[in-house]
Amino acid sequence: MPPTPRPVRPARLLPWLAVLLVALPLAAHAADAFDPAAATAAYLARIPAEARARSDAYFEGGYWLILWNLFVSVGLAWFLLGTGLSGKLRDFAERRFQRRWLQVATYALGYILLMTLLELPWNFYTGFLREHQYHMSNLTTAGWFGEQLKGLIVGLILTTPVLLLLYAALRRWPTRWWSRAALVTPVLILLLLVIAPVFISPVFNTYKPLPDSPLRDSILSLARANGIPADNVYEFDASRQTKRISANVSGALGSIRISLNDNLLKRSSPAEIRAVMGHEMGHYVLNHVYKLTIYHSLVFASAFAFTAWFFGAAFRRRGAAWGVRGIDDPAGLPILAAVLAVFFFLVTPVSHSITRSTESEADIFGLNAAREPDGFSEVALKLSEYRKLAPGPWEEIVFFDHPSGHNRILMSMRWKAEHPADPGK
């Protein structure tokens, strides 16, 4: 006979029912849980393999350009010194003028013009041919040369007074000039930041107020909410030169301007534009202009000290052969330029890390301000057209002055995971 089944007692089922009542919602939640790593991988997978290979090749080629730029700078300095052109240019200035500052100004003008001419083939390759090879430039050949001419005029106006100050310091403090130059550097940087939005940027692009629209109102509302004293938003025609998207909150000491380029307006959704503007406003709110001025001034102070030491060694070995009389001789400017090029090549990882850290801070600020994690991720994909999307850790430290697209998207997805009820999700 079959065994008689035991009667089921309801009291014994209560613990199991309790477990099921708890476990089922948890299982459903786990199934619906948002995984930042998986979401990041899904974003990265949207970039076709061919496009990603082209972007990687473009950006990795830039690693070699850093080295080749050093070779070009040092090689041209050696050419000017070895052929005696630098000494002849100084002699010409001395024959023309008695006053020392006019001699320096004449040499400076000639040096800038000569270097522009000598660097032209290399700059044409890096700034025009290569940019068109990777479909990044919209400039015609004539347009590119026009941009170079504008840059030359701006360079003559800005660089000549700086060289006058430098050689005045070299004459007065031939052994301690570098410390005086270091003290003046932050002042010059801030001055440039003040005048650039008003006088320099309009030389290269046309700026006009963004027409009244919900987008403009949204940007200004975001600015007001974060204490940015701006009552207008400007659009500039970067599409004349490039396909890149960009925006900025530029200026210092009251000359604040919110600007975004027409590529960003044409190629991005309102959510993406808000994400970008939140990031740019982060630079202002977090005082990055002044922090970067301090950081880069310290780098320049180190560069000046290094240059003072290296110039002395080079002058003792080759000064007579090059026709250079001393550190206060304008004919020695190619030596100063070459040494500075070597120094900034060596500290590339430091300079990039300084900038990248502030960009990361602005990323986080922008996510909290604009609350558009998906918008910011979409922008990161657009930036991957010319930035390698997923570099190795050391590759990013050495060569990236912005966080990589992978890390930006991952940061956005982590923010999204922590704000599940946020409307920006």
How would you characterize this protein structure?
73% of the residues lie in helices and 4% in strands. With 425 residues, it is mainly α. It has a domain at 205-285: Zincin-like. Strands 1-2-4-3 form a four-stranded mixed sheet. Helix 11 (288-322) runs antiparallel to helix 13. Mean pLDDT is 88; it is low at 1-8 and 10-31.
Could you list some keywords that capture this structure?
425 residues; mainly alpha; Zincin-like; four-stranded mixed beta sheet; 4 strands; elongated
**Residue runs with pLDDT of under 50 for 5 or more positions:** 1-8, 10-31
The profile of the biggest β sheet is: 4 strands, mixed
Termini separation: 65 Å
Question: What's the helical proportion of residues?
Answer: over 70%
Strand order of the largest sheet: 1-2-4-3
Q: Return the CATH class of one domain.
A: Alpha Beta
CATH fold label of one domain: Zincin-like
Number of helices: 16
What value does the average pLDDT take? Answer: 88
Produce the secondary structure layout.
Layout: H1 10-32, H2 36-45, H3 49-82, H4 85-96, H5 100-133, H6 141-172, H7 177-204, E1 207-209, H8 214-225, E2 233-236, E3 247-250, E4 257-261, H9 262-267, H10 270-285, H11 288-322, H12 333-346, H13 348-370, H14 373-383, H15 393-399, H16 405-418
Parallel strand pairs: 2-4
Antiparallel strand pairs: 1-2, 3-4
Helix pairs in contact: 2-16, 3-12, 4-5, 5-6, 6-7, 7-11, 8-10, 10-13, 10-14, 11-12, 11-13, 13-16, 14-16
